[in-house]
Fold:
Amino acid sequence: MKLSEIASRLNAEILGEDVEISGVSAIETARSGDLVRVDSPRYLTAAEKTPAAAFLVGPDVTGASRPALRVPHARLAFGRALALFTPPETRMSGIHPTAVIGKEVRTGEGCIVGPYAVIEDGVTLGARTILHPHVVVGWGSSIGDESVLFAHVTVYPRTKIGRRVRIHSGTVLGSDGYAFEWDGSKHVKIPSTGWVEIGDDVEIMANCGIHRSTTGPTVIGPGTKLDNFVHVAHNCRVGAHCLLVATAGMAGSVKIGNGVVLSGRVGIRDHVSIGDGAQVALNSVVWKDVPPGAIVSGDPARPHRENLASLAALHRLPGFLKKHHGES
Structure:
């Protein structure tokens, strides 16, 4: 691909000769013919030592000895450039003869269904949807255009998945909520009669679990991204464009606003609300509502600066006690 063609795709300014580009890479893995990302001036010297054909540079990078594309946000443009050279995720086409297709299943144009996939009755698949081997889609579910479900994803009945959704191996959508009530002698199961709704442009990584609700939907809003091993319990509602990092977990009926970030190993108790744009730091446990825009940490989670002050005081405590003991 010519550098000028990449420039037009990225809306970038081209500097220097219009060379041929055969791939995109970081500095550490650069090969001959590659377009290499150079985020800031401090990386330019290292980039110049590579055999790369051209550089993808941020606004502060000047004086490159090779052709370059200048962009406002080098990392974002790097991702888009990579997409231009990414090989296809599957070589399958059509519906494999070993797939099990139920009654009244509707498939859009260009759908791909891999070996041993199971599609139960009444499922709707949008155009160019891809189901990899051993995917199971329960009855009455729907999956929007250009969504991809990787091997061994399980979708329980009546689940609604939007467009351009990517769900990675081992994830389960729509299993029963963990809801039981003690009757004096045993735990009685509370039925899960609801369903799961996944918005457009969501990505769910490997081995996540999202429970269907007791009644109504459990919701993941558009553009939200779930890392590996994220747990979303029954009746939860997660807003748009949230980031839920590995092993974050929420109990039942949690409400997450838009643009929220939950770092790794965050735990949230039931019926807690987290406001728009809030951030919860690594290993925190949230016991009460978090206001919009707040940054919290610790167990129990509280304003981050307050938590840091408490930790600093705690670290000073041994010295204080030693001094006090010595004086006494």
Observations:
- Helices lie at 3-10, 44-48, 74-85, 304-327.
- The mean pLDDT is 94.
- The domain at 3-85 is CATH 3.40.1390.10 (Udp-n-acetylmuramoylalanyl-d-glutamate--2,6- Diaminopimelate Ligase; Chain: A, domain 1).
